[in-house]
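Figure 2 data, in text form.
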Amino acid sequence: MFGIPPARPVKIARLPIVLLFLCVPLGVGTLTTGCDDATNVGEDLVGAQGGHPETVEIPIGTLETGELLLPPDLPSRVLAGMVDDPTLGTYHVEGYLDLTPVTSEAFRAQPVEQVDLRLRPSYVYGDTTSEITLALREVTEDWEPSGLPTDTSFSVGPVIREFSFVSTDTLVVVSLPESWVEDHVDAFQSPDIGDLFHGFRLDPIAGNAVVGFGPENTSLLATTADESLASPIGAAYAHVDRTTTVSLPPDRFLMQAGGGPIPIFTLLSGGQDVPSSSVNRATVTFWADTVSVHAVTPEHFVRPTLRTLDLYAVTPDGSYTFLARTTINAEGQFEFDTQILARAYQEMLVGSQEFERFEILLPDPNTLASPQGETPYLYSSMNPVVLFGPDAGNRGPTGFLTITPLD
């Protein structure tokens, strides 16, 4: 269940989805489970008698947009900037960052002389050659990123200063004005700085890229005559506004990290008497449009895409059950295929606990057995994937069951 916050409910169209979750993941990152082999899943539940195995299609019923909500304890990479993506639209991203307070008696013994915000670029979406200008503002209220939708804003003060850089810079140092430092001496000298100072917001002013900063080597460096203390990022949140959209074909679905949306879908019953069958295998497959999204890509423009996704089932009370994790294959498919999913579908058929909907989410970093590369930072990115919808013919999403009809 992993603490993923609920999205809005969607009713099942035809088939009541039910589940008794009997499999316990031993390592979500590798999708190993405590279940028996998939070939005897049905036998455990409804008996070994039956005919020859056959494959039954379980079509996608509805496919709707859901709100992207942030799980707790995400790595604190902050996004900020603006970008005009010729395929997906124009984005305006305001980045909030709060700090982990660091202090000492020696540091508090002398007045603060200089404060620098040190930003380490670690991600870019857009034109890598563009000069980016951001405005720095102080956040004036307490805030917490966990569970927030990506259209949330918090109150801020006036512009402290503007600064410019390019995404290929290895370090961006923003020296804060003396007047601002003087006004905040009491806060920085207090052991309760975490209650007195609520961080900054980075507002895009110019440029054609969204940049991610940190979390490593990004900090607020405060200096006295003899001491200096670096306070690292403690929390980050991006307010994403997709202001101008480019029309995708009607049979496409845009899923995007950072701003959303996410796919919410239901499954329809097959044309055969599936409930009187033993389920040996279950798959759910979504095709990605790997051509159209990159058809118009200017020189020096980078658009990292989503390549790993998670499948969850959601009960009427809002509880989330993890079913599968998959990475896009060479054919452009996200194929969810695990023993957990097969067991879930069998329990759905015999009737125990209702599923109201399914959701495809980004991998929660807290469920990764061995976090590597960009995967832990996907929520702090703008990575998109364009999926084919139910009206896309043989590229449309669907589910398949391998079943053994019972005699």
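Caption note: Residues 78-244 form one domain.
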